[in-house]
Structure to design on (418 residues):
DNA sequence: GTCTATAAGAGGATAGAC
DNA sequence: GTCTATCCTCTTATAGAC
């Protein structure tokens, strides 16, 4: 009995250590993806950043694509948690929620924590689409946002002239938009100000209201 | 005298052939950049697409970065011609002109002729910034658009709440926006319709007017 | 599961003949 | 200036000892 407990304890301890290590790996991948993108990020870099040998990395993740997928799952998970929190806030309507999640995406991007994947790399795309964890969460998030989009259109705050699909893809695209980063590189503005401007261009447009 | 003329004629003929070949190279680079992006485009591919040996390519262009720069110069040149044409059209005001050039960018992108370069690749960025032909045209285009932006703000059609810089970068970003391509991949809409929607999200925003 | 060492191959760039 | 053949570096991935 006692040895059983100890074995269980040791097992879960080891599992915890492993999980922590994998978390560290995914966190590194996340930062590197945000900083350099998938093509320029090398597995050597990831290993060096985590502080382990490259071969050890491959014991945890089968390929570079799997690393990227894990990073995407992580950020999707965070997004889904935010979405749940916003859903629970009764003081917000659907439009406010869409704006809030977009603001979070911009903040995350400026913080260097939004992994950006090239839409063009078909090898990566295929790997992601074959990854159940990624696809399921992406669909889940799309569904949740889709509900908000429909509700916001019904309430009249979001333009009814645009198909929900167009709105959804536009919001996803803003999460990886280069504009905030370029503006920050210009150096003239505070991050908060800059995010409000980008949010304004997104929801209110460039034309005068 | 005669031999002088003949020699001149032959020289300019050869120069024309060379220039045609370089045009063909740049056109290939342009398409490949639009289709795969800089990192995934290989020099071997370019050579195969043009139908010459890779070593011959390097007689015309010193590096892969130089190829990309040439493609960017080409598209900037086309953009500048369009800008001049729009400037000459007295029936348009500054706001209309900005919208027209944005529409052209979206059409060009959907036609697979808008080379897209990663903002993250510093090697490429350095090479571009060291290229006078590229930088001069980029500044020229930015100045022209900047004038329109100021004018459109003065006339009240373009939002005065946004710094001209923010508007300019937003327009540049729309030229490489993934949204049109993703929407087309969805397959449900005509290109024209799709472009109008993206234009609407850009100038009028997602919110109801 | 971690390491060192290395395989295997892609891709940018060049040598040298013509 | 065009070609073939090759160099060389970088990068993904794995072998095999511990």
């Amino acid at each position: 009995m006692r040895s059983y407990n100890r074995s269980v304890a040791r097992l879960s301890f080891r599992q915890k250590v492993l999980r922590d290590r994998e978390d560290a790996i995914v966190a590194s991948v996340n930062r590197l993806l945000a900083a350099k993108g998938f093509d320029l990020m090398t597995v050597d870099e990831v290993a060096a950043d985590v502080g382990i040998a490259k071969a050890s990395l491959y014991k945890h993740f089968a390929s570079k694509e799997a690393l990227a997928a894990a990073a995407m799952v992580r950020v999707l998970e965070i997004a889904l948690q935010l979405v749940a929190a916003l859903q629970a806030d009764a003081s917000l309507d659907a439009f406010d929620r869409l704006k809030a999640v977009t603001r979070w995406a911009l903040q995350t991007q400026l913080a260097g924590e939004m992994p950006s994947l090239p839409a063009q790399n078909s090898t990566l795309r295929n790997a992601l689409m074959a990854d159940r964890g990624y696809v399921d969460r992406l669909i889940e998030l799309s569904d949740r946002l889709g509900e908000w989009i429909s509700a916001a259109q019904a309430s009249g705050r979001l333009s009814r002239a645009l198909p929900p699909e167009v709105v959804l893809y536009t919001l996803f695209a803003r999460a990886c938009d280069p504009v905030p980063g370029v503006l920050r590189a210009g150096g003239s503005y505070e991050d908060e100000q800059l995010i409000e401007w980008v949010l304004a261009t997104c929801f209110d447009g460039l034309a005068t209201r």
